[in-house]
Write a structure and sequence with these properties.
Oligomer: single chain
Strand content: 25-35%
CATH topology: Immunoglobulin-like
Largest sheet: 4 strands, mixed
Number of strands: 8
Number of helices: 3
Low-confidence stretches: 1-20
CATH architecture: Sandwich
Shape: globular
CATH superfamily: Cupredoxins -  blue copper proteins
Order of helices and strands: HEEEEEEEEHH
């Protein structure tokens, strides 16, 4: 009887530990105006682990979230949400992912999602983005580097 109780307790502990290792979900709002100005993702720099998700919330109408070709690690699936609709993206492949709002891309409405240890950081940094997106990504990569140490 004593061994049965120990086995049950051990099994319950194992299940609790497995449950604690579940993937996380981070919320990112798509906004007309945020703390950093007009047409922003908030937060615009997200650090997660492989298997975690980002839920892009259409807090204001007229925005979407889409991956940027050339700013994703090899083997990652591109994604594209619909205008004014939420989208949840699961990130399984470690790397740096550029995210854009298609209608406001050149205006600098971009975000950087870093999954685990990024394998494509140099390639993502070297990608040529249009308009204000270029400067915004330069700032995001600087923020990432400053906090990655």
């Amino acid at each position: 009887m004593h061994y049965s109780l120990v086995a049950i307790a051990a099994g319950a502990l194992a299940l609790t530990m497995i449950g604690g290792a579940q993937a996380a979900e981070v919320e990112v709002k798509m906004l007309n105006h945020g703390t950093a100005g007009a047409y922003v993702f908030e937060p615009d720099l997200v650090r997660i682990q492989p298997g975690d998700s980002v839920h892009f919330v259409a807090a204001d109408k007229g925005h979407d979230a889409a991956s940027i070709d050339g700013m994703m690690p090899a083997g990652a699936k591109p994604f594209a949400g619909k205008i004014s609709q939420d989208i949840t993206v699961k990130f399984d492949v470690p790397g740096a992912y550029g995210v854009k709002c298609q209608p406001h891309y050149a205006m600098g409405m971009v975000a950087l999602v870093v999954v685990g240890t990024p394998t494509n950081l140099d390639a993502a940094k070297a990608f040529k983005n249009p308009g204000k997106a270029k400067a915004k990504f330069a700032d995001l990569f600087k923020q990432y580097a400053a906090n990655a140490k």
